[in-house]
Write a structure and sequence with these properties.
single chain, about 450 residues, alpha+beta, six-stranded mixed beta sheet, six-stranded antiparallel β-barrel, 24 strands
């Protein structure tokens, strides 16, 4: 299965197009149907001519509901941009494209709707030119009329081609950002979301992290549904409804996340900023990642790097993409790509600028960032280096000591300090047996005492 989000200005026919493609009404609320205006996320699905199952997340186009729109767009790997032939490119189309670009989404389709009301050519050419300057690049474009049905088959074929070009889902344990949580009588708590990676199975334990960072362990999957059908297991990428045992619906909701396996939670991120210079960012912004939205404190680290202090710890990792938005202006300010989900503290004068240099040096690849981080800190756990993107067991210019990787420069510095410490102790009191292991480890600020035995041998201490 594949999952695609819609995008586009209010009243340009996104929901009507989804209805024409799927036969399902994506607007779930009576108020939405009465006003003809999508307010919250809608969901629908279909099977394409190739036999591929496709789910839609239909997002609101009105500026007042931009937060809901970003919750739908955040977990999506592909997007269908909708522009009306009789109105063309509008303000919220531009805002949605800014969000798409900030998230770095590279797979999309342009659909020009209401082609029975105006020649779609002008709107199509203008929209493709604007989209080409974004992360989507040059996209395929199709004209359609949801009212007459003309072009619907062409859209379905274009969606097939789009889905066929999508990269595989990321490997690893499951992470599913939640967009709904509710209670069904006789079944209990149900949560829904887009499973972006991993696999879920009935009977399996899961961890839940709420939008406020509260964790709920000892939760179990009671049942799974996809496309309104029960399944025993499901793999990414899919729309999923999960029936949970061990938690009440009021403890979890939109912005929370369902996890399997081992995930580290973090409330501090070093990110690469896109769209503006980091120094131009306000100190307080809203961070949108997955379906989560919360205020963050921004600290510039350089031209294109910043540190984000979150209000809640989240399961984020290097490479995750997010949006920084000004809530007062209801405007997407910048994109953010996570470079380090466990960054070092900035305690000394000038350490922020130095950290910006390190992040800039590591901008080429995860491996170069990992190496730069190791050079900066002098010592890191091997598992941390692997998480940062360096898969060498012992990079050149380093040594492996137990679980730790130490740069040669740091090792030489420790050895010199240890020799000086032993010499000073001997000169001060020749009758004392020497420096204790605990005292030496503390004085040298070693990561753990076990490193001292290898160091003492090299230092001749």
């Amino acid at each position: 299965m594949a999952v695609i989000a819609t995008a586009g200005h209010v009243d340009h026919g996104k929901s009507a197009l989804v209805r024409a493609l799927t036969g399902i009404e994506p607007d779930r609320w009576d108020e939405e149907r009465r006003r003809g205006l999508t307010i919250d996320l809608g969901f629908a699905w279909t099977t394409l001519p190739s036999g591929t199952d496709l789910s839609f997340v239909d997002v609101p186009g009105h500026q007042r509901f931009i937060g809901n729109m970003l919750a739908g767009l955040g977990p999506a790997a592909a997007v269908m941009v909708v522009v009306a032939a009789d109105e063309g490119w509008r303000a919220q189309t531009e805002e949605h494209l800014l969000a798409i670009d900030a998230l770095g989404i590279r797979n999309g389709l342009l659909v020009v709707t209401r082609s029975d009301l105006a020649d779609p050519g002008t709107a199509m050419r203008a929209a493709r030119d604007r989209i080409a300057a974004s992360s989507l690049g040059d996209v395929e474009a199709v004209a359609v009329s949801a009212r007459t049905g003309d072009g619907v088959a062409d859209v379905r074929s274009a969606l097939d081609r789009l889905i066929g070009a999508l990269p595989p889902a990321p490997a690893g344990p499951a992470r599913m950002w939640l967009d709904r949580a509710f209670t069904i009588r006789g079944a209990g708590t149900v949560v829904t979301g887009t499973l972006g990676q991993g696999e879920l199975a009935t009977g399996s334990p899961v961890d839940l992290v709420s939008a406020t960072g509260d964790s709920a362990p000892d939760v179990r999957i009671r049942g799974l549904h996809s496309r309104d059908l029960p399944v025993t297991s499901i793999a990414a990428v899919s729309r999923v409804a999960v029936n949970l045992a061990g938690i009440e619906a009021d403890r979890i909701g939109r912005g929370g996340v369902l996890l399997t396996g081992s995930w580290s939670l973090t409330d501090v991120l070093d990110v690469r900023v896109t769209g503006v210079r980091a120094g131009e960012l306000p100190e307080q912004l809203m961070l949108h990642v997955g379906t989560h939205a919360a205020q963050v404190r921004v600290r510039p680290l350089g031209d294109d790097a910043a540190r984000l202090q979150l209000t809640a710890a989240l399961p984020l990792r290097e490479g995750d993409r997010a949006i920084l938005r000004n809530p007062g202006l209801q405007h997407v300010v910048a994109g953010a790509e996570v470079l380090d989900a466990a960054p070092p503290a900035l305690r000394r004068r000038g350490s922020a600028a130095q950290r910006g240099v390190v992040l800039g040096q590591g901008a080429g690849s995860p491996a170069s960032l990992a190496w730069s981080t190791l050079q900066e800190r002098g010592v890191l756990r091997h598992a941390e280096l692997v998480r940062l993107g360096l898969d060498e067991a012992e990079p050149r210019g380093t040594r492996r000591v137990g679980d730790w990787v130490v740069t040669d420069a740091q090792w030489s510095s420790w050895a010199a300090l240890l020799r000086a410490l032993v010499t000073a102790q001997r000169d001060a009191d020749p009758l004392e047996p020497g420096v204790t292991e605990n005292a030496a480890a503390a004085e040298l600020r070693l990561p753990e005492r076990a490193v001292l035995a290898a160091l003492a041998g090299d230092a001749g201490a």
